[in-house]
Design goal:
485 residues; 17% strand
């Protein structure tokens, strides 16, 4: 069998998928957003409260996520941020809603049946949010068909030819685009949460630094017992290579060496040859050829610990991209307050949430390295560290220029005052009509008059400027996009 044989049949007996759509919200209105979600039947996910932790039907039949597993998987300094006890705490606030609704997805002439088990909305720190759509295909499909389903479903906006020709068929037998399905059928209240900001144009007015309006995909596939899983299958899984517009199986390379180099950085084969995990910049996928009844633990990890591990690193990627974007948008002459808020954002993010080691388990550490490689987190973080140094330099230079200008002005007034013996008062001014004699002033009296008036005007300007600046800073801090968390 050829290494790049993509026409080999590989039936997928069970397919679990979570599509993740990031967005931006106003973190200053987090409590109002939480109230809106609760009004729409979302339950707050609390790890230590069984009633709040949620319904097992969030994940699918017979899939249970254990509390102790989540607690022991992450370090304590990560755990209390990933699983806060209330909306008042800092961290990642998850709201879950049981859906259990069946739909159909049509791609050209192919029809796929699936059930949406639940949706999550995660309110992460600093105004970044995530919509997670957790679903399961309700039938057995061939491998290329499943990959084609994933590739088309993740396209919120079908701008590319390869993503066109698909739509959702709802329970009312109406056809909707993926964008309309999400924002009018599945989560209509999301439109009230996603912010529209002049600085953040694009991506529904929210995140212009996220690539081409497609959702991130996590999936767990189960094929027939003992079926061989080749490198070609794994490469196509990470790249979500399904079918061409003509309906033929597709792979995004013709070079076996390229495929091997790609898998060397994206493949986790600890449990091979019966289970493989692939992580790329747009998919986190698991595939196994073991019997379904033997995979309950692995499915629990996929829905629980692996989900949060991936979520945390995906958040890192988005925040680092956001900082780079914000830095590129700075107008240095006008955005002094914006520069300070950006410095604060980078500092708080780095100290409160960014950690290289998040898991206590060896597999968790291995997956973390896989995510960091897939999302290019090290490179992005180095760029942000460089950005922070440039911002500090600009602040220092700006402050130094202001101090030098003020010292220059004060030096002039000090020299002039010293010449006059620290007394700029002219005897004529003591009389009510003394000001009328200015036409008879000498040169030195004119200098004294101009200096006195300039000093009074400058003092008034500095007072009004200082108080105005304080008020502007308070006003902008309430409305600024770089909210504190």
């Amino acid at each position: 069998m050829s290494q790049l044989d993509i026409k080999r049949k590989l039936p997928i007996l069970q397919t679990h998928v979570t599509f993740m759509l990031p967005f931006s919200y106003e973190s200053g209105k987090k409590k109002e957003v939480a109230k809106l979600l609760e009004q729409n039947q979302y339950a707050y996910f609390c790890l230590r409260d069984e009633k709040k932790r949620g319904n097992p039907s969030y994940y699918g039949e017979s899939i249970v996520v254990e509390e102790t597993e989540l607690e022991q998987y992450f370090y304590p300094y990560i755990e209390h941020k990933l699983f806060p006890t209330s909306i008042q705490s800092k961290g990642f606030h998850r709201f879950s809603k049981c859906q259990q609704k069946e739909y159909q997805f049509q791609i050209r002439s192919d029809l796929y049946s699936f059930i949406i088990h639940s949706t999550d909305i995660v309110l992460a720190p600093f105004g970044i949010g995530f919509l997670s759509i957790r679903l399961e295909l309700t039938d057995t499909y061939e491998y290329s068909d499943v990959l084609d389903f994933l590739q088309h479903f993740r396209a919120v906006e079908s701008n590319l030819d390869e993503n066109k020709g698909s739509h959702i068929i709802t329970t009312e037998n109406t056809k909707q685009s993926m964008h309309d399905f999400i924002f009018t059928c599945l989560s209509p209240y999301l439109k009230d949460i996603v912010i529209q900001n002049d600085r953040l144009r694009g991506y529904f007015g929210s995140l212009p630094y996220i690539e081409d309006e497609r959702m991130f995909v996590t999936t767990f596939m189960i094929t027939e017992e003992g079926r061989e899983l080749t490198d070609t299958d794994l490469f196509r899984l990470g790249s979500l290579n399904g079918k061409t517009p003509a309906g033929e199986p597709f792979i995004a390379t013709t070079n076996p060496n390229y495929m091997q180099r790609s898998l060397s950085t994206s493949l986790h084969d600890r449990w091979g040859p019966n289970l493989f995990i692939v992580a790329t910049d747009h998919a986190f996928a698991t595939i196994s050829n073991r019997p379904i009844q033997q995979l309950s633990t692995e499915l629990s990890h996929y829905m629980g610990t692996h989900y949060y591990n991936m979520l945390l690193h995906y958040y890192y990627k988005i925040m680092l991209l956001r900082v780079s974007f914000e830095y590129s948008e700075i107008e240095w002459k006008k955005d002094e307050q914006y520069v300070r808020s950006l410095i604060k954002l980078i500092t708080l993010f780095s100290s409160w949430y960014y950690f290289k080691v998040v898991s206590t388990r060896s597999e968790g550490k291995e997956l973390s390295r896989l995510f960091r490689e897939a999302f290019s987190i090290e490179r992005l973080y180095n760029e942000v560290s460089s950005t922070l140094q440039e911002l500090y330099k600009s602040q220092e230079n700006s402050q130094a220029n202001r101090v030098n200008t003020l010292l220059f002005i004060l030096t002039i007034f000090t020299v002039v005052s010293g010449i006059y013996g620290m007394n700029l008062v002219i005897a004529d001014w003591e009389s009510p009509s003394g000001w009328k004699k200015f036409t008879t002033y000498t040169v030195f009296e004119w200098i004294s008059l101009i200096t006195a008036l300039a000093g009074i005007a400058l003092s008034g300007y500095l007072i009004f400027y200082t108080f105005g600046r304080i008020l502007r800073q308070k006003w902008r801090s309430m409305r600024h996009s770089l909210d504190d968390e």
